[in-house]
Amino acid sequence: MHKKKEKTISSMLNHCWSFVQQVLFDPVLYIFKRLCVVFMILC
Fold this sequence. Notes:
The protein is an all-alpha fold. It has one domain. The chain has one helix at about 1-40.
């Protein structure tokens, strides 16, 4: 019983983490790519 609850919490954390990655890291990656392009153009 206790083990099952741990697993549920773990899967919830996993789900949250993938959501955070999607929401935070995608825009950051996009901005980083744009900055690289601008940097290449300027240099």
